[in-house]
Amino acid sequence: MLWRGIDCAHFGGIQRARALYQRLEEKAYTKPHPNVESLKRALKKAWNEITLGTLIKIVDDFLKRLKACMDAKGGHFE
């Protein structure tokens, strides 16, 4: 899966979410913002560029990791 130049196909769930967060930061902080409203607009614009498919994959990965954590009773899991 490719989103805004980031190849997310090889990332696991956590890494995919981190890549998404990193991309939001990169898009929102390309320039200094004079106020909070300007930053909010930049974040909303970056968020709106994320595809539904990317969000679905991140949620699916999270649910798989949550189930693995529950199955391991909070212990170590891969």
Automatic annotation (TrEMBL):
- Superkingdom of this protein's organism: Eukaryota
Q: Which GO terms describe its molecular function?
A: nucleic acid binding
This one is known as DDE-1 domain-containing protein
Q: Which organism is it from?
A: Acrobeloides nanus
